[in-house]
Amino acid sequence: MRQSPANRILMLLKTEGPQLLSAIGDALSISGEAARQQLAKMADEGLVEPVSAPAPGRGRPRQLWHLTPSGNARFPDRHAELTATLLATMVQSLGPQALDTVIAARETETLARYRSEITAEDLPTRVRQLAGIRTDEGYMADSWQEEDGSLLLIENHCPICAAATACAGFCRSELETFRSILGADVEREEHILHGARRCAYRISGTAR
Using an 8 Å Cβ cutoff, are 129 and 117 in contact? Predict the structure, then answer.
């Protein structure tokens, strides 16, 4: 099914970050005026907003279009409010150790499943396979290799953001899962919970 212009813009801003009006028009193969009208309509609906950013060199500030919280909310959150409430109730009723047990069990299950699906021996292919699995899970993931030989795993969305916000242990567990499944050094360079628009992981070394 063909996506509407609004949904295509939402997806573009979610996966590529803030964009110039001209870049949005080019991506959708529409005129600048058509893109302007669509963005104005979406801004009235509270989905996007323009933000001034310094231009390279001494040029005039540029206007970049961003997703608003309402725009981000158009992407699935796996019942965020219920998840956060259940986690808080668990800690209150059973203590923090109960949550640690749940996180550890989830990590064990995730590792077993990933190991059955990630079969390549070379690290770049393992990272691509991991990105595919994470995309299927709702993380909108991608990967590529940098000029210095390091690899990047990018996750443009966090479908368990409410759980991670309620308990940072989920984020720590996912980082350890990546290190274990890839057998390489993995460092998180951008983090949605710290205000970044995405989570970005730099991977170096060779699969062990």
Answer: yes
Name the one residue in this structure whose structure tokens are 């933000």.
51
Tens digits of residue pLDDT in 43-87:
999 999 998 877 776 667 888 999 888 888 787 655 556 566 777
Residue 100's CB is within 10 A of a number of other CB atoms, namely 13
Over residues 148-204, the pLDDT tens digits come to: 888 999 999 888 776 666 667 888 999 999 999 999 999 999 998 888 889 999 998
Rg for the chain, CA atoms, rounded: 20
Whether the CB-CB separation of 181 and 112 falls below 8 Å is answered with no
Q: How far is CA 187 from CA 58, 102, 105, 106, 157, in A?
A: 35, 24, 23, 21, 18
pTM beyond 0.85, yes or no: no
